[in-house]
Design a protein that fits this description.
This protein has 642 residues and is of the alpha/beta class. Helices cover 37% and strands 19% of the residues. The protein has 21 helices and 24 strands. GO terms for molecular function: 2-oxoglutarate synthase activity; magnesium ion binding. Its EC number is 1.2.7.11, 1.2.7.3. One of its GO terms (biological process) is response to oxidative stress.
Length: 642
Amino acid sequence: MTSQVSSPAEQADGAVVGEQRKAAGAKDVRRLDRVIIRFAGDSGDGMQLTGDRFTSETASFGNDLSTLPNFPAEIRAPAGTLPGVSSFQLHFADHDILTPGDAPNVLVAMNPAALKANIGDLPRGAEVIVNTDEFTKRAMQKVGYETSPLEDGSLDGYHLHPVPLTTLTVEALKEFDLSRKEAERSKNMFALGLLSWMYHRPTEGTERFLKSKFAKKPDIAAANIAAFRAGWNFGETTEDFAVSYEVAPAATAFPPGVYRNISGNLALSYGLVAASRQADLPLYLGSYPITPASDILHELSKHKNFGVRTFQAEDEIAGIGAALGAAFGGSLAVTTTSGPGVALKSETIGLAVSLELPLLVVDIQRGGPSTGLPTKTEQADLLQAMYGRNGEAPVPVVAPRTPADCFDAALEAARIALTYRTPVFLLSDGYLANGSEPWRIPDVEELPDLRVQFAQGPNHTLDDGSEVFWPYKRDPQTLARPWAIPGTPGLEHRIGGIEKQDGTGNISYDPANHDFMVRTRQAKIDGIDVPDVEVDDPHGAKTLVLGWGSTYGPITAAVRRLRRAGESVAQAHLRHLNPFPRNLGSVLERYDKVVIPEMNLGQLAMLIRAKYLVDAHSYTQVNGMPFKAEQLAAALKEAIDG
């Protein structure tokens, strides 16, 4: 997904083509302001690739967009079963949008399982495109259909388009030297071509992608392109699709700049690379593969030209151990994981707290506990990030709000880690990691200066006048200790997990010293400079909706709905969860009611109640999926009226 949003000239050209097409063709072309499409099929049907390509072309066209990939945890789940259904939802519009959408306007179902798993989410009147070739008696019985839903009237409330996708694909590829099974694999490209025709999506980017992806297999590339074109031509010629649709570019939704479509994990990866360049430090990633964080390891491994070193360790503990060693050696050190990996890394995070070295711990949260729901989203690691270590081991916590915001959050986490010499948690989640949206590529001049000064020589004078290096002599403003590169003459010092004496860094078991060091480390975190939380409250509301992380999109969409309906409601969203912004207490005091939606059982609400003695109301969900805007709007309306 690397397409840029098209320029105004290119967008104008697209509009001209649309006008010419309407003038030349007999089919009706209707203009819409937004559309929600869901592709669904077996996990081996290529639905994620199909969605990715449609998304890239939509970004290229200039629409605002938001996506929601949803797939099984198994590499190849049982074919034709409900647990094996993979889907990709895309919401695109001619205006600013915030979520992948609540209910699809269009469902492309490649088999009976895909239809049954998704039909309940569709509103009446939605378009349903089904691959009739897969609706065999055995396939339908496998998912509990006693009669064919294509014939028994159960789909009468929808605009049903029965299309023999498999047969049409095989027929389109009969000139290629492919077996039927090989030809059938291109049916997702046929479906992509059909949907591209329906919504006037560009096609050149997809054809370039297929040529590149199958560069070593030109026959396969040609077959996929042929299937893609056949799908387009089918839409153009068949009588079943009498209408196509246009969604104009979102010309007013974006500030001026160069844009591209980007996923959360990719944005986070780029943010880490940018942080290392702005800090003038090599970037080191010590990681063990785990869903949904592995894409960061994959991406960073491609950027050796930027001084990035990636180490795929044998386990989670080795990954963070190597990263902490790299921090000691003067690198911008990162370890990536998800909730189960955080549990294994907890002792080394505590060691990093004791050593007071910069380290980024990136937690791409997923459903738990234990292995839980590896490919589903959740926000349930907040308390683990705050307190999941032995002893008093405070760690700053930063959370991005959207996929594109993962870039800025990575820079912010690096700023805190380098400035205050501390490990920092960066809490993303599966929804942000796999979802995507347009991102304005920043100019380098806009990025923060993260350069640090390593210790160069002695920093303390003893009573006898001799000059020595004290590794725990602190900056009076930040309370950060000096960062001394191993091997620097005269800067030899001890490190380790046993408590250090203030200043000298010698091993100390003195009770008073331990009390002082524990309180000093806490004071360092409490004193971190973070921006005040901003409140969106244009009407002087009495109810505040407070969120964090990936709930930003659904909350904002719900707040907009309520305001359009005449309700008065305020909104604030936290990026910094430890320490909280200094003005948060005064903000909370201004409102009669505070509602906190979370994809957990109320973890932020618990912290807010404890720290500010505010009777915060939790609204929670832990079903592995993000909130729907309509659902949140109803819950907030109830809170306002209650």
